[in-house]
């Protein structure tokens, strides 16, 4: 399983069940009087993922008490307090009354999230115990000596060892808690514990060394001697970080925080403790972080941090030139397509999401193209339109709807590498399936199982945006290839572009007589038309939907009407403008004006339309010539229509 797939799985689980808080930051119990115990506690902090997104918001803590053992869940023992005022008892004690003098009471803290998910860990941070005692005895009369606790530490490699604090914690009365400092030359110490008091030994942390576990609680017995031994093991793991130069870089685990002493863009942290370390880079308002799991001495890990990158284009829609200007991080980047064995080059190969677009053969045998999730923004300022793609969440950007069908977000989607062939497959060396209505293609695609459908308007929009930002030109026929579209007499089998370098460009031969491919998706224009779902047309009005379970023909039910319209008399008309919805569907790019353009101006592609309810097909076929392209649209055929020059393409959304 890839990192992205693993993260998607975890995200889905977290969305369904939520994440529990971390352990308590502080939790102590102490005798208050002969019938009461005082508690002081501090709830855990909120937790975040490696991208700085909130994973768990702490809602409160439930504390339960037992006379026999520490409660292990929220039903055992007696409820002491369900506290939602975070931090209220960090310094001010909460008093538990009505207890029996000299009897040990065991307290367990169960912090919970605002979603109601409890931390049920038995970690000692979530436990405390104490026995009520007469206040006079606590404050005025020194208790009789009980047993002697001898503590000895060993150090496997003392070359870097300085000192460590050993604490004998008196759980009965905190005023009798004692500490001692041990070094590599002084490795033993002794504590005398008051008779009848409950105590345990806590081993302090020594930088560069593993921390021994604290001892279990014990009641002091007169004249007894207890010997405790523990070993500090020298521990060093390294984390090599690449990060934006100039940023402040930290590496933290619980209370331990290391800060890089340089800001050159590369740094190595040496860490000395097992756990999940958070590496974070901060520059102004920008933050990037990753979590690194350290499990063993000598372990070496690498982390690359980057702030959000935005790749954009802009174009004055009133001008006839199809070219876009590059903006943001795309400035200075270039892309060219391959022709035959002559390889093209794209600077976007090293930029997400483009570098994550790959062909994969799924368990069904279908060859699909995996597209990673990205965030987008499409808007206009006056006549200037902007399309921007971000590789991470950032203000003003939304997850592209391809990755948010029916409100269910996913980390990637799969588009058919080839046009659909018989048996509802996306495979090489097959003739495209044709002569079916859109409803038939839809039904056949769904029959493959959950997540399958035919390509829809959200998937088309994602491809259009990615290709436009990469090549910065509406005339993709001139940038990648005309496609199989000039004077041909029948369809072309799939797979003719399998050997194209970088899987972007066209085979050798006459342009217009060979197919095209973009990042593994073959035949996006030409060969045979493709049905597209999620779009209906009625007398010039567009209706769109992004819920595959509700896709249907000849209806506005469950569909949203776009704010722009088209004409009903387009016929081989060159598109001059793609509309921009002012509602919730700015990603949808469909013809808003046509007639005065050409194969080399404005959108460079053709469109057709008619009155009444119509269904949407795109791309053009083997003989549509220059009318073919990324934006070619036909809204002229009824839902009952089928043709030998009309097929489709599969879409798969993982669940």
Jot down its keywords:
single chain; 655 residues; mainly beta; nine-stranded mixed sheet; five-stranded antiparallel sheet; 5 helices; 39% strand; disordered N terminus
- Supply the number of helical segments: 5
Strand content: 35-45%
Number-wise, the strands total 50
| Residue share in helix | under 10%
Tell me the major beta sheet. 9 strands, mixed
Globally, the shape reads: elongated
Which residue ranges are poorly predicted, with pLDDT under 50 across at least 5 consecutive positions? Answer: 1-16, 136-140
Structural class: mainly beta
Structural description of this entry:
By secondary structure, the protein is mainly beta. It is built from five helices and 50 strands.
What is the topological layout?
Blueprint: H1 3-17, E1 26-33, E2 36-42, E3 47-48, E4 54-56, E5 58-66, E6 78-83, E7 94-96, E8 105-113, E9 127-130, H2 135-139, E10 145-155, E11 163-170, E12 178-183, E13 188-194, E14 198-203, E15 218-219, E16 225-232, E17 237-242, E18 248-253, E19 256-259, E20 266-271, E21 275-283, E22 286-294, E23 300-304, E24 310-316, E25 325-328, E26 335-336, E27 338-339, E28 345-346, E29 358-361, E30 367-372, E31 375-381, E32 384-390, E33 398-399, E34 404-405, E35 408-409, E36 412-416, H3 438-446, E37 452-454, H4 457-471, H5 476-479, E38 505-506, E39 517-518, E40 521-522, E41 529-538, E42 541-544, E43 560-565, E44 573-578, E45 591-594, E46 606-609, E47 613-618, E48 633-637, E49 646-647, E50 650-652
Parallel strand pairs: 10-16, 17-23, 27-38, 41-49, 46-48
Antiparallel strand pairs: 1-2, 2-7, 3-4, 5-6, 5-8, 8-9, 10-13, 11-12, 11-14, 14-15, 17-20, 18-19, 18-21, 21-22, 24-25, 24-32, 26-28, 29-30, 30-36, 31-32, 31-33, 34-35, 36-50, 37-50, 39-40, 41-42, 41-47, 42-43, 44-45, 44-46, 47-48
